[in-house]
Amino acid sequence: MGSDARTPDPRLGLATAGLVFVLAWGAFAPMLGAYWRHDDFGWQAITDEWRAGERPLWYGHGGFTPAYNVLYRAIGLIGDHDPLAWRIAFTTMHAGIAVAVAWLCLLVTGSRGAAGWAGAFFALHWVHHEAIGWIAGGLHVPATLATVLAVGCWIAGRRRADGRRLAAAIVLAALAPMFKESGLAVYALIGAAEVLLPLERDRGRPRRAIVGLGVALALYVALRLTVGVASEVVPAGERIYRPGPHVIANLAACVPQMIAPDLGFGNYRALLAGALPQDAIGLAVLASRVGIGLVALGLVYLLVRGTAAARFAVAWMFLGFLPTSLFVYEFARAPRYLYLPSVGVAMLFGCAIAAALRRWRRRRELIVALAALTLAANLGPLAVFTRSRLRDSVIRRAIARQLPQVLPTARPDERIAVTGVPSHIDDLPAMTWMLYGRKLDIVTIPPGEPPPADRILRFADGRLTAAE
User: Fold this and answer.
1) Which residues are registered as beta bridge partners of 458?
2) CB atoms within 10 A of CB 385
3) Where are the beta strands (DSSP E) in 336-451?
4) Are residues 228 and 347 in the same domain?
């Protein structure tokens, strides 16, 4: 991946593509089965309704995601509705996206070296753990795949005046927001390619292709307004998702977190609490926020003074995040929302390594070693996230396996308590959708607290039993 050879019609090469694919699978395979969140149970409840014919495939777990619903249903049918099947599919798609990112970077830079490093960075980036690990976060994965391929086909089609590639770009752009509504960013990203990259100025074909993009967007809007959704998880205009000055703050504070995460976020701070004294945690949080500010300034500088490829990469980071920026900060900074924008980080990393190799040829071995260490550094956070979620998932899986045996039936008005379960596992009511076909009134009670319920179950040493 250290080569920076350029060709008029660059090809990625099977060896580079294969290596990037294997890196992605190897990095995220330990996470298979590690996540289990209440949103996952929500999707499994929707699956039960689809199987019973109670809900059409237009409707998913909130939002307008018909393409994802069909994909999700197909994976469920092939994998017998085992959660592991969906996670295997997301991991495989992620590996495919990493290869597509390398191809996109090759189109943008003409450098095989930049492409290889960009693909490897995307394959291993720790920020992807949430989108791949959650079934409910999986919408971001096919939406990103469609977006990357759409932009890549557009650039390739414009460079070669190839109508077939431009047509493929239009079809993929139409699909992207039907996997996840934030896929609407694909239209802004194609616009950025037109403005920032040196593309051929064929007047006739681009005009027809741009009209095609407009038709695709219009059809999406028409479907969105006429078909609608069964329910909106976060309706537009609510307090947590609406336009306002916070959008600028989110763009400045969240986009840099793909490079310098905010350690003050609750999940990260909880992990630090197990390793550092309180004073040191405060310093670490302060340092992370200073780092975010410095990264934001650096990105603005590159957007103004960088090469065309670097400017396009930075523009991708911000434009890919734009649909999410309407959330309040607590939601906007979630790692799953950074999956699509992280394509820009990967391209920027590839451009930086390729530029360094061209400028400091005598220090080639040192540059390659530092780049490899940067990639390897992503494996540490991934291992931590896998361990922290895996422990919870073992408890959830044990309860899900034993609950129907201990509690074959329950009255609609019956309140059930499960004692001995950690307080942060609060999604058992959602789990019962999958087990009973309806949501039960069930609560978890940490050890030592009195259980206010009609029926009490005890969980200890991995076993669930009915209280005497």
Assistant:
1) 419, 465
2) 20
3) 415-419, 441-445
4) yes
pTM listed for this prediction = 0.84
Distance CA 427, CA 345 (A): 34
CB neighbour class for 38 (10 Å; exposed up to 12, middle 13-18, buried from 19): middle
The predicted structure's pLDDT at residue 250: 93
Q: What is the pLDDT of residue 290?
A: 96
Residues in the chain: 468
Phi, psi of 64 (to 5 degrees): -105, 95
Q: Crossing angle of helices 163-179/140-160, nearest 10°?
A: 160
379 is a domain residue: no
Instruction: Give the SS3 label for residue 445.
Output: strand
Q: Measured between alpha carbons, how far is 284 from 268 in angstroms, rounded to an integer?
A: 11
Beta bridge partner(s), residue 160: none
pLDDT at 343: 97
Lay out the sheet containing 441-445: strands in order across: 441-445, 415-419, 455-460, 463-466
Q: Residue 388, exposed/middle/buried by CB under 10 A (0-12, 13-18, 19+)?
A: middle
Q: Which of 336, 359, 382 is the last residue of a domain?
A: 359
Looking at the structure, do residues 459 and 335 belong to the same domain, yes or no? no
Regions of the chain where pLDDT drops below 50: 1-9
Please tell me whether residues 66 and 183 are part of one structural domain. yes
Q: What is the dihedral of CA 301, 181, 140, 377, to 10 degrees?
A: 20
Domain-located, residue 101: yes
Same domain, 221 and 284: yes
Same domain for 213 and 349: yes
* In a domain? residue 443: yes
Q: How many domains does the chain have?
A: 2
Convert 409-439 to b/e letters by CB count within 10 Å (16 or more is b).
Answer: ebeeeebbbbbbbeeebebbbbbbbbbbeee
pLDDT tens-place string over residues 354-393: 889 888 988 889 999 999 999 999 998 888 877 776 556 6
User: Which stretches does DSSP call E strand in 294-448?
Assistant: 415-419, 441-445
| Beta pairing class for 415-419 and 455-460 | parallel
Domain encompassing residue 53: 14-359
Regarding whether 201 and 138 lie in a shared domain, the answer is yes
Local structure of residue 229 (DSSP, 8 states): -
On whether residue 394 sits in a domain, the answer given is no
